[in-house]
């Protein structure tokens, strides 16, 4: 997927079992990379895009992803578009979806406490090895060595789409140009694939993406604009510190 992936398994299980669980996660993610990579000429996505692979002969996973991308195109008024670059590229959904599937499989296998980070798209469940809720840092859009936000919880799907690594790579599908206005969008929800796609769509919308996120049910968000403003929904606004008073 062209990114680093890390896995933290916090359950007190035998080392051999933990190794097997981790091996299954990375095997699955390598399978996803081989099937959906836009960089590998022999991937299913590239072959389908070139017309060499009929959709009827594609894998169940590819057909599922394309169906979800079509649903997301409708749900985002066309701003999540797997063809925004002129060729098939479902990456804005695939990375989060793949990590969500891996996390679901870990949970089903009895590993209820884990954190999977796929290039900044994070699925965390249960508690860390310290017994505390997971803490997930959101990278500062201008300073790669620091964070601008920290989230904590026991069941989090956190996806961030931004321009600080690849520049303005998300395109506004209506104008056919790189989207501007939002430097970083973080979306938190119950499903990492959806959160990933919603974050990408909001970046594609530009400044209008903030209002769209405000009306997105069952999700929270944090936005950093190109002019360095941090925008949070009303439910996440910090409580003002009371001004000290004195009496005479």
From TrEMBL:
It is an enzyme of class 2 (transferase). Its EC number is 2.7.1.180. InterPro entries: ApbE (IPR024932), ApbE-like_sf (IPR003374). It catalyses: L-threonyl-[protein] + FAD = FMN-L-threonyl-[protein] + AMP + H(+). It comes from the Bacteria. The keyword Oxidoreductase does not apply. SUPFAM superfamilies: ApbE-like (SSF143631). Its cofactor is Mg(2+). It holds the Pfam family ApbE. Keywords: FAD, Flavoprotein, Lipoprotein, Magnesium, Metal-binding, Transferase. One of its GO terms (molecular function) is transferase activity. This is FAD:protein FMN transferase.
């Amino acid at each position: 997927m062209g990114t680093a992936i890390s896995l933290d398994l916090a359950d007190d299980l035998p080392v051999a079992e933990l190794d097997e669980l981790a091996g299954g996660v990375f095997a699955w993610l390598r399978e996803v990379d081989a099937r959906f990579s836009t960089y590998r000429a022999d991937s299913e996505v590239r072959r389908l895009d070139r017309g060499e692979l009929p959709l009827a002969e594609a894998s169940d996973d590819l057909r599922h992803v394309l169906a979800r991308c079509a649903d997301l195109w409708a749900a985002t008024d066309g701003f999540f578009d797997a063809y925004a670059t002129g060729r098939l590229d479902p990456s804005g959904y695939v990375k989060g979806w793949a990590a969500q599937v891996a996390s679901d499989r870990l949970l089903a296998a009895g590993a209820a406490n884990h954190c999977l980070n796929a290039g900044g798209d994070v699925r965390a469940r249960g508690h860390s090895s310290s017994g505390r809720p997971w803490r997930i840092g959101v990278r500062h859009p201008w300073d790669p060595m620091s964070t601008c936000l920290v989230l904590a919880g026991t069941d989090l799907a956190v996806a961030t789409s931004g321009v600080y690594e690849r520049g303005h790579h998300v395109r506004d599908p209506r104008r056919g140009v790189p989207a501007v206005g939002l430097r970083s969008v973080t979306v938190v929800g119950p499903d990492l694939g959806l959160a990933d796609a919603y974050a990408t769509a909001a970046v594609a919308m530009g400044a209008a993406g903030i209002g769209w996120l405000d009306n997105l049910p069952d999700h929270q968000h944090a936005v950093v604009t190109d002019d360095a403003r941090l925008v949070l929904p009303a439910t996440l606004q910090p409580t003002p510190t009371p001004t000290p008073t004195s009496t005479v």
